[in-house]
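To: structure desk
From: M.T.
Subject: fold request, one chain
Message: Could you run this one when you get a chance? Sequence is below, nothing fancy, just the single chain.
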Amino acid sequence: MKSILILLVILCFSSCAHMQRTDKTQTELSQIFEIIQDGDFITRLGNKIWSRIIKNLNEEDKRFSHVGIVRVRDDEYTVIHVAGTISFRRDYVREEPLLDFLKIASNVGVFRTNDADGSKISDKAIEYVGVPYDWSLDMLDDSRIYCTELIYLVLKRIDPSINLNTIYVPLFRKEIIPIEAISNSEHFTEVFFYNRERRRMFREK
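Reply: Done. Structure tokens follow.
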């Protein structure tokens, strides 16, 4: 049962379609601070085995396994995100320093909404800190939420017209929001991509 539960959680972060990139500029990950803004959506590919499994579940874009919301206040950069853990010790929405969020990342992407003010996004996101992780992935129950559901709830409170696509997962017998709903959406622009192995980042101009 535990292995099935882990697989269910893994599926909540499924596929991202490749983005077309032109006019690329190479730079280092440390320069993320010159690009990232309050209210951006930051994605990563972690270094744990389940992160790799999540990546390989993606049909086209196998770059990411998790997403959070950037908050910038008084020159402090943090990420608000929610993830379940095997130990069940940190399975709730939390705010942590950006550099801590990036420690386990081999890929990093940043997406910026075209439709909403970034400060409003991060202000709404901070209100969810402490909400438990939703192991059942049930979007009808806001008392517990999973990673992309946090994005969905925040955006809906700001602009109800913004929709995030869902996919039906037979194993769950329900609809979930994949990361593809952000990376492959007309509502967002990809402004940053970094691959640790190649030690480079691509930036849209």
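Reply (cont.): Helices lie at 2-11, 49-57, 98-102, 118-126, 147-158, 180-183. Let me know if you need anything else for the meeting.
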